[in-house]
Structure formats: C-alpha cells, structure tokens
Automatic annotation (TrEMBL):
Belongs to the ABC transporter superfamily. It comes from the Bacteria. InterPro entries: AAA+_ATPase (IPR003593), ABC_transporter-like_ATP-bd (IPR003439), BCAA_Transport_ATP-bd_LivF (IPR052156), P-loop_NTPase (IPR027417). Keywords: Amino-acid transport, ATP-binding, Nucleotide-binding, Transport. It holds the Pfam family ABC_tran. One of its GO terms (molecular function) is ATP binding. Residues 7-247 form the ABC transporter domain. This is High-affinity branched-chain amino acid transport ATP-binding protein livF. GO terms for biological process: L-amino acid transport.
C-alpha cells in the first residue's frame, strides 16, 4: 500500500521581522487519512510551522525565506489563506478564536464563507458537525463568549469543518483544558479522521495524549526536527520518554 502524500514541507526557513530566524530547515509530510503530530515545547516553532502552511505568517511579519511547501504536488506558499481553504487546508488557531458576540451556530456558519454550494449542503454539514459535537447542538443558541473553554475549542474545530476541509491544521487543542475534555476532543478528532477521512496535522505540547491518538510524530526543538517516526515507536523511545512523556 502506498500512502498518498497531501502536504510536503521541504526544508523551510522562517524569519520574523526580517531578522529573527525561527525555523531552521523544517521538513515534514502529511499523508492522506493520517493524524500527524508536531510536538515540542514552548517556542519550538510549532505554531510558526502551521502558519507557514496556511499562509497566515504575513500578518505576523513572518516570511518563508527558504524551502518549499506543496499540497497535492502544487507549490502553495504564495497563496492567500482563503485560497488555502479553497484547496482544502484550514488552520484552527491556538486559543480558540470564536467570535464571542455571535452564537455558537452563527460561529459555525461563518466557517462556510468560502463555499459556493448553496444552503442545503451547508445545512447538512451543520447537522454533521452536531453529530460529532452534540454539546455544540445543545449550546447552539448561546453566545460563544459565554460557553466553556472546551466548548469554544469544539466550536473552533466545528467552524473549520464547515469549510469541508481535507486537512485541518490544529494548534494546541489541549491548551487550558481539563484532562477529561482533552480526551473528549481528541476522541472526536480520531472519529473525524476515521469516519470522514479528514487528515490532521496537530501541534501539541501534550506529547502523551498526542502520541496516543496520532499515527506519526515529529519533534521540534529550536526550529529543527530532532526526531520523527511512527507514534507507537516514539512512545517507546527512551529519549522521548525521558524528555517529553514525563512532562504531561
Ligand atoms: P507555543 O506553544 O508557545 O505556541 P510554538 O512551538 O508554537 O510555541 P512558535 O509560536 O512558533 O512556537 O514560536 C517560535 C519562536 O518564534 C519563538 O521564539 C517566538 O518567540 C518567535 N515568534 C513567534 N511569533 C513571532 C512574531 N510574530 N515575531 C517575532 N518572533 C516570533
């Protein structure tokens, strides 16, 4: 069986504000139908890597100065974020980013803005999101700003789903959440992967949980990939155990 590659990041360098070199040659691939984890501590460069792919760096005065990024074989690094969404790649930002003054359902509907396939299909997808996130259905008329942290994280993922993505770049879904909710969210990610075929590249500091749900992992340190492999192997690796699994 040959795995189809969706995303290929090849030796990229990223510089902020023309001077600060943050990624120093990062390479990774995301296969179709997989959950790929991007691990590493605070400031290792996980968010920068995701933003390089989704083309969200420009608003932060960041620039890919070397290397290539391709999706389904096409060079994509000069596209706009919304063109990436049209190609099926969407980022769920760290910190959730719901529109606080809109209801949960209105937030979800904003995720469909790039679509041209009419209201019927969008209504169907809203129902699909609710089958994966029953809590969002219960809270659909609530103002998002008044929902819990876990519900806001779910809302952010649900909103991304409304663009019918092929690949979701998910940044620190566990951040600030109680262990039980982290488990709940990762289980939903796994279900979306298995049942809807959505591929994930997920950045996480919580190595423990990420390696339980992912198929493959990359570990970043100071802007370089220092280790990679199947998640099951990384979980058993003595260095990973000592430096990463003890932490979370
Ligand atoms: P975290 O989990 O804290 O988000 P991370 O692994 O995602 O960590 P990044 O956010 O990618 O790391 O940050 C990597 C480095 O780039 C850090 O040293 C950070 O200070 C720096 N950095 C991030 N954004 C900017 C920016 N807009 N301008 C300058 N430096 C930045």
């Amino acid at each position: 069986r040959t795995e189809e590659t969706l995303l290929e990041v090849n030796n990229i360098e990223v510089i902020y504000n023309h001077v600060i070199l943050v990624l120093k040659g990062v390479s990774l691939t995301v296969p179709k139908g997989g959950i790929t984890a991007l691990l590493g501590g605070n400031g290792a460069g996980k968010t920068t890597t995701l933003k390089s792919i989704s083309n969200l760096l420009h608003s932060e005065r960041g620039e890919v100065t070397k290397g290539t990024i391709s999706y389904r074989g096409d060079r994509v690094q000069d596209l706009s974020p919304s063109d990436m969404v049209k190609r099926g790649v969407i980022q769920v930002m760290e910190g959730r980013h719901c529109f606080e003054h809109l209801t949960v359902e209105e937030n979800l509907l904003t995720g469909a803005y790039t679509r041209r396939d009419g209201r019927g299909a969008i209504a169907d997808d809203l129902e699909l999101v609710y089958t994966y996130f029953p809590r969002l259905k219960e809270r659909r008329k609530s103002q998002a700003g008044y929902t819990s942290g876990g519900e806001q994280q779910m809302c952010a993922i649900g909103r991304a789903l409304m663009s019918r993505p092929e690949t979701i770049l998910l940044d620190e879904p566990s951040m600030g959440l109680a262990p039980q909710l982290v488990e709940e969210i990762f289980t939903i990610v796994k279900n979306l992967n298995e049942r809807e075929g959505v591929s994930f590249l997920l950045a996480e500091q919580n190595t423990n949980v990420a390696l339980r749900f992912a198929h493959h992992g990359y570990i970043l340190e100071s802007g370089r990939v220092v280790m990679e492999g199947p998640a099951a192997e990384l979980r058993e690796n003595p260095d990973v155990k000592e430096f990463y699994l003890g932490m979370s």
